[in-house]
Amino acid sequence: MKQRVELAKVSPFQLSRKTLNTLAALTIVLISMLTRAALSAPQELGDGLPDTVAGTEVVIPASGIVLTGYEVRPSPNGRNMPGVLLLHSSGADAQRSLDAARSLADRGYIALAISMRGARSLAEGDDCGAQQADDAVQALNWLGQQSGVDSSRLGLLGFGQGGQIALLAASRTTLPRAVVAFSPVSDVAQLHNTTAYKSVRDYIDSMCRAQSLERISPLANVGSITASVLLIHGGRDDLVPSSQSEAMKDALQSAGKQVEFYVLPHAGHEFTAQQFDEAWRWVVNFLARYQMLSVGWRTSEQQRRVNLFTERGWSSRLGTRGIRTVRALGHVTKERVVITENPHVQRRKDELREFVFDGLYVRALFPGRAHDAYLLQEVKITKLRWKAKFGLNVGTIRSSLLQVLGRPDSEKPDFVEYSHSMGIGTVRIWMIEDRITKLEWEFRTD
After folding, report:
1. How many CB atoms lie within 10 A of CB 130?
2. Of 61, 82, 423, 438, which is the most buried if we count CB atoms within 10 A?
3. How many Å apart are CA 410 and CA 423, to the nearest integer?
4. pLDDT of residue 298
5. Domain spanning 2-296: which CATH class is it, in words?
6. Could you give the C-alpha distances from 71 to 50, 75, 181, in angstroms and in order?
C-alpha cells in the first residue's frame, strides 16, 4: 500500500550530522542500549509517520504488526535497480534514515526506510532484535517484490541498533548481497561486561535476557550470513565499544566470509558531520561494488562480456585441468608451494602454489594435493605478451575498456573493478594516464 507524500527538501544527512549532547546519547538502545524510560525523542510525532518528509509512504504487513516507512526512488532508467532497506537506531523511526535514503536514491538505488518494532511512532515494543530481525526479513522480501526492483541485488543498511538487526536479518535470509552496519552490537553478553553505561547493563538484564542471547547476537550467527559485510565503528565509542565490530569482523573472516571493517579513531558513538562524510564514502563504494550498481547502466551484451572477462579474461589455456597446463604457459621463473589444511575435510591437506612468469603471476589451490585439477585464486598480467579477451590488453586505452565492458562496479584513482554477476570473480584493472598497466583477477574458492 503506497501513498505519495511530498515534502520540503532537506539537505542530505542533515538529521544524522547533529552531534548529540550527553543526555541525547542516552536515547539509543542496544546500540545505545538504554531503557525505554530513559529515551528522550527529538520531537513527538504522534501516531503513524510524520508528513514532513519526501517519499512514498508505504505500509508493510509483518508478523503481528504493520510496519510503516518510506520508499525513495531514483529517476527511472528503463531497467530494474538495486534496493536497500534502511534500519534506524533505537528510539528513532523511518524519518531518521531518510537523508541516507535520498543519498542512495540519488546514486541509483530504490531505498526503503522503515520504522521498526520499538520505533517511537509505534506502540509495539523493542525486543532486543529477536522479532525485529524477522520483521526486517519480511520488509526486504517486500522490497524485492516491488516494481522496478532487482531482487537479486538487495542490501541492508543499519545505524546503531539497526546495524545489529541488519546483521541478524542477514543470518536469517540469503536475500541480501551486502550489509552495512554502523556501530552494531554483535555480542550482547560481552557488551554487558564492556559498556561504560550502567543503564545499558540494566537494559540487558531487564529486556534482553528475556530472549535467547544467541538469537539476538550476530556473532553467534556468523555461519548463516552469506552477504558481504561492511562494519563501521567509532574508536572512542564507550557506549558500544568498537571491540563489538572487531569481534564480528574476526569471526566473519575465520568463517571465510567477505567483510570490511573501518574504525574512525576519534569518533564516539555519534559521528560528527565530517566523520559521517568520511564513513559515507566507504558505504557508497561498498554497496556499489557488492550490489552491482553499474549493471543498470550496462547493455545486456556488456554484462555478458563482464561475466566472461571476470571468470576467465585471458586468452591462454590457464584454468584448464592439470598442473601441466600452467607450466606449459612458458618459462616459470619462480614457483612456491605452501601446504594448508583443507577447511572442509579433516586431516586432508591442500597445496597452495604460486607460479611466476615474465609478466604473469598465478596462484592456485590444489585440493588434496592432487595435481590433476586446481582452483584459481589470483591471476595478474603486467605485460602485453599475455593477451586478454576482447583486446583488453596491457596498453589498451580507457575509452575502449568502457565501450567493451561498460561502467565499472567500482572506481578508484588508480584502478577500476568489474565483478561477475554471480559473485564468482572480480577483475581489477590498473591504469596510468588512462592506459591499462595491470590486470588482476581474484576468485572465490569456498
Report:
1. 17
2. 82
3. 14
4. 82
5. alpha beta
6. 14, 13, 20
319 in Cβ contact with 376 (< 8 Å): yes
Residue 59 amino acid letter: V
Please state which CATH number belongs to domain 299-443. Answer: 2.60.460
Helix ranges (H only) for 255-367 are 273-290, 300-312, 323-327
Confidence of residue 25 (pLDDT cuts 50, 70, 90): very low
| 342 within 8 A of 351, measured Cβ to Cβ | no
Instruction: State pLDDT tens for residues 147-179.
Output: 999 998 899 999 999 999 999 999 999 999 999
Residue with cell 542530505: 12
pTM: 0.66
- 231: helix, coil or strand? strand
How many Cα atoms sit within 13 Å of 85 on the Cβ side? 38
- Provide the residue ranges of all domains of the chain, joining segments of one domain with +: 2-296, 299-443
Task: Give the single-character DSSP code of 388.
Answer: B
| CB neighbourhood size of 335 (10 A) | 12
- Grid cell for residue 105: 536514491
Listing from the earlier edge strand, what are the strands of the sheet with 360-366?
334-341, 349-357, 360-366, 375-381, 435-443, 425-432, 415-419, 410-411
Indicate if the pLDDT at residue 20 is higher than 80: no
User: Each residue of 317-376: pLDDT tens digit?
Assistant: 898 889 999 999 999 999 999 999 887 788 899 999 999 999 999 999 999 999 998 999
Residue 86: closest CA among 176, 203, 3, 24? 176
